[in-house]
C-alpha cells in the first residue's frame, strides 16, 4: 500500500544541528503535515511541559537528531546540501521563522492597507433586493479553513512557541525585568488616562463647535457650519479628529501586541492595521508640523518681499481683468460684436469690479501684512496643511466675483443656446414634448413661424458677443479650478498618504505580506524540496488597497454630510471624483452647464 504524501515544514535556522548534541525535534502536527518548531536537548527534555490548555496547541515530539529512540524516527542531514534527508513520500518545505515581536508573519491573502479610522462598508453590505443574495443569506457560504491555512498559523507560532519552550519549567523572567515592565505599563496607563480625560474631551468640544450649524436647513447639504464653509476650519476639524482617535488606535495596537496563543492562532496578533493606522497618523502629524516650522521660518524671513509680491499680484490681476473687459467691449481680435450688448455686459462687469476693488481688495491689500503674520503663526503651530487651507480660503474670497461672472455668463449662454435649439426645431416642424420627454411633430401657424424666425435671427446675431464673454470667464474658471484642485490634491496627499506602508515596503517588507510563494530547490534526493517565502505587497497593491479604503472613507463622509437621508453608494463617490474629468468638463462647456471640482470638504 502506498504511503500518503507528508509535508514537513522545517525552519531554515535548524539546518545545522551540532553533531555531538542529542536533540529532540518538537513541533505541531496538522493531519498529514508537520511543522517543526525547535530542537530541545535530550537532557532537558524531561523537564519540559509540552501540554497546553488547548488540545490543538500542544507541541508534539516529531523525531530525534544524533541518537536513536525506539518510539520516534531519527532525522539525518545531508552534509552536501545541508538539509534533512526525507523519505520518498515526504516533501521538505523550508521556511524562515517569522519574528512575531516585529509583526512578521505569513499570510495566504494579502493584507489591506487602511490608514483611516472608519470601518469598511463597500464590500460588507449585501443587496437584500437581489434574490440570489437573499437565498445565500440562509446558507453558510463562508469557505472552510484549509490545512494550509492551519499550517501557516502554526508557522506564525514559531517564535512564541520557542519562547515557551525556553522558559518551560523555570522562572519566566527575572524580577528586575518584571518590575521594569510593570513600571513602564503603569506610566503608559497614566499618560493614556490623562490624555483621555483632558485632550479627548477638549477635542470633542472643539469638533462640536466647528460642526455646529450656523444656518439650519431641512436639507443637510444646505446647512452651514464652520467646517463646511472654510478649508481652514475643515483642516482644524480633521486634525482634532486625529487627536481624538489616537487613544483608540493606541489601545488596538497594544491589544494586538499581546503575545498569547489565542491571539496568534486566531490571526489577530498579526494584524498590521492598528500598527499602520497609529504610526501613519503620528508620522503625518509630525511631518506636517516639521514642514510648518520650516515654512513659517521662510515666511518670517521673507515677510516684506512676500507682502509686496502679494499686493502687486492682486493689483496686476485686477488691472488685467479691467483691460480684458475693455478689450471685449471693443471688437476683440478684430471680430465685430454687437456693440450695445457688449457695452451693457462690460459696464455691468466694470461696476462689479470697481465695487469689489474698493470694498474688498483694497482692504485686503492694506492688511495683507497682518494677514501674512497671522498665517505665519498658524503655520508654525498648526502645520503646513493649515497654510494650504488658508491659501484656498484666501483664493475663494479674492476670486469670488470671478465665480459670479462665470456663473452669470454660463446661465446666459445656456439660456440662449437652449432657445436656439428649440427655435431650430421650428424650421422642420418639430417640438419638444416635455411630458413624454421626446421630439414630436407639430403644425405651426404662419405667425408662429414668422415670430420664431425673427427671434432666432436676433439671437444668432447676439450669440458671438455672448460667446466671447462666456469663453473669457470659462478660461478664468479653468485656470482657477486647476490651482484650487492642485492645492486640494496636496492636502489629500499630506493628510492621507500611506507613508508608513511605503517605508515598510522599503525597509521591512516582511510586515506587508501579499501572499506566499513555494520555490523548488534541489536537494539531491528523490524527495521534493521547496522553500516557503512570503511575497511582499507590491506598490500597485499598496496604492490599490489605499484607494479602496479612501473611497470607503469618502462614502462615509459623503453620507454623513447628507444626514443619512438617502443611501449612497460607490457610484456617488466616483461621480464626485469624476467632476475633474477633462471630457466631462469639455462637455459641460459646450452645453453651457456649470462645472466644478470635487467637493473636498464633503469627501474628507
What can you see in these coordinates?
By secondary structure, the chain is of the alpha/beta class. Among the domains are: 6-166, no CATH class; 300-484, no CATH class. The protein contains 20 helices and 12 strands. The strands form 3 sheets. Strands 5-4-2-3-1-8-12-11 form an 8-stranded mixed beta sheet. The chain is elongated, with a radius of gyration of 35 Å.
Concise synopsis of the structure shown:
This protein is of the alpha/beta class and 604 residues long. It is built from 20 helices and 12 strands. An 8-stranded mixed sheet has the order 5-4-2-3-1-8-12-11.
For this entry, give a set of tags.
single chain, 604 residues, alpha/beta, 58% helix, transmembrane, membrane, PigQ/GPI1
Spell out the blueprint of helices and strands.
Elements: E1 6-11, E2 23-30, E3 33-41, H1 42-45, E4 60-65, E5 74-75, E6 77-78, E7 83-84, E8 90-95, H2 131-136, H3 147-156, H4 158-166, H5 175-210, H6 226-229, H7 231-257, H8 261-266, H9 272-301, H10 303-329, H11 339-366, H12 368-382, H13 384-398, H14 400-427, E9 430-433, E10 438-441, H15 446-496, H16 499-507, E11 513-521, E12 529-536, H17 539-561, H18 570-577, H19 582-591, H20 600-603
Parallel strand pairs: 1-3, 1-8, 4-5, 8-12
Antiparallel strand pairs: 2-3, 2-4, 6-7, 9-10, 11-12
Helix pairs in contact: 5-7, 7-9, 7-13, 9-12, 9-13, 10-11, 10-12, 12-13, 13-15, 14-15, 17-18
